[in-house]
Design a protein that fits this description.
- By secondary structure, the chain is α+β, with helices and mostly antiparallel strands.
- It folds into two domains: about 40-145, Rieske [2Fe-2S] iron-sulphur domain (Rieske Iron-sulfur Protein, 3-layer Sandwich); about 170-355, Alpha-Beta Complex (Naphthalene 1,2-dioxygenase Alpha Subunit, Chain A, domain 1).
- About 20% of the residues lie in helices and about 30% in strands.
- The strands form four sheets. Strands 1, 13, 14, 15, 16, 17, 18, 19 and 20 form a nine-stranded mixed beta sheet that branches. Strands 3-4-5-10 form a four-stranded antiparallel beta sheet.
- Strand 15 (about 210) and strand 16 (about 215-220) form a beta hairpin.
- The two termini are about 30 Å apart.
- The relative contact order is 0.17.
- Residues about 1-15, about 15-30 and about 375-380 have low confidence and may be disordered.
- The structure holds FE2/S2 (inorganic) cluster (FES) and fe (ii) ion.
């Protein structure tokens, strides 16, 4: 998709719950390896273009992200192959004419990762950045993280249909102690939907289906909660959740009484083996003929209705995630869990998850050990 346009409205904010503000680091992952293999959200195209050069800690790696003038985005390891400088903006790295320029001796790298110039000598051919494979879905940039650096083993789905009837995307990022398997497990943990979030009449629709790295789960529920204290819109909901690995969940939402369609992405990304970022992205479709009267909506021009709906959906989902975060931050992974009959298909979900932890190679063990050592003694991660 072309840069800018509809996706330019994708805005991002970052929340760090107060409970994570302390410096104390807990080894939060009890039995799960910290980094399941898969595609993980990096940043939106809009934020990459706006900030020019981004540095991040992502699955235990320090990475830099930028775009060239043709819109080609590069996600690369942050350390220079010359003499090892970090090339992030906080160290002095910049993007000049679409190339990343190292702050130490001025080597320049294009978006393929090749060194294309140095200030006083021909570019050494062997000087190449470690570049991660990327995919883009409606302006969201994902990169593949493979065990031991192995290439993608499966793909993300194609972009869902988009168009002017869909509101601009809105997003919000949480940061907390957690694991992407635990956050993804929410989509099949039907009991907590009522108990923790207060949903009513939670009913699974059909059975959970699994095809390789793709898992689909459908359920209906009711909710009489007023949104922002004004509108009781989420009253009779059908959801279809498409999970593609532990970093990408896409939820299609249909509200039956109004006839509103919305969708939400839930993107969990490990930071350093202790913390994760969880990004929520929402969009709502234009409501041309509401099936019933909605207080307040009638006064709004058509164009603004779906924007408001997307905003309200994000607001509501943020509230639900905050309820989950309190649990996620302090919970222990249980394997095997002692389930009851009312639980959703958690056992099936756990079997699905196994594929994302292939046998580590000796190389990936060494990488993980180095990474753990760095984070045990290093400065706070981003
Ligand atoms: S360390 Fe990057 S140019 Fe020397
Ligand atoms: Fe939840």
């Amino acid at each position: 998709m072309a840069p800018g346009g509809e996706q330019a409205a994708l805005r991002s904010t970052l929340e760090t719950p107060s409970t994570t503000s302390g410096r104390r680091r807990l080894n939060r992952v009890d039995e799960l390896p910290p980094f399941p293999e898969g595609w993980y959200f990096v940043a939106s195209r809009e934020s990459i273009l706006r900030r020019k050069l981004i540095e991040l800690t992502w699955l235990g790696e320090e990475i830099v992200v930028w775009s060239d003038r043709n819109g080609r985005i590069c996600v690369a390891g942050a350390f220079c192959p010359h003499l090892g400088s970090h090339m992030g903006p906080t160290v002095g790295g910049v993007v000049r004419d679409g190339c990343l320029v190292c702050p130490f001796h001025g080597f320049e790298f294009d978006t393929s990762g090749a060194c294309v110039a140095t200030p006083n000598a021909p570019a050494p051919r062997a000087a190449k950045l470690k570049v991660y494979e990327t995919r883009e879905i409606l302006g969201m940039i994902f990169a593949w993280w493979g065990i031991g650096g192995r290439p993608p083993q499966w793909d993300l789905p194609p972009e869902p249909p988009d168009g002017p009837e869909w509101s601009p995307m809105r997003s919000y990022t949480f940061r907390f102690r957690g694991h992407p398997q635990e956050t993804a497990e929410n989509s099949v943990d039907l009991e907590h939907l009522g108990y923790t979030h207060g949903y009513g009449d939670v009913e699974p629709v059909g059975t959970l289906s699994i095809d390789g790295a793709y898992l689909k789960s459908c359920f209906d529920f009711t909710s009489v909660r007023k949104i922002a204290g004004v509108i009781d819109i989420l009253s009779d909901i059908e959801t279809v959740t498409h999970v593609h690995g532990l970093g990408y969940s896409f939820v299609e939402i249909h509200e039956k009484t109004i006839g509103m369609d919305a969708r939400m992405w839930v993107l969990g990304t490990p930071v350093d083996g202790t913390f994760i970022r969880l990004t929520l992205v929402t969009q709502a479709r234009e409501i041309r003929k509401p099936r019933r009267f909605i207080v307040g909506l009638g006064f709004l021009p058509m164009k603004l209705r779906h924007r408001l709906m997307s905003r309200l959906l994000l607001l509501e989902e943020k509230r639900y995630v905050r309820q989950d975060v309190v649990i996620w931050e302090r919970k222990r992974y249980r394997s095997p869990p002692r389930l009851c009959r009312a639980d959703g298909p958690i056992g099936k979900f756990r079997l699905y998850c196994r594929q994302f932890y292939p046998e580590p190679t000796s190389q990936s063990r060494a990488t993980a050990a180095n990474s753990a050592q760095r984070f045990a003694s290093g400065p706070g991660s981003r």
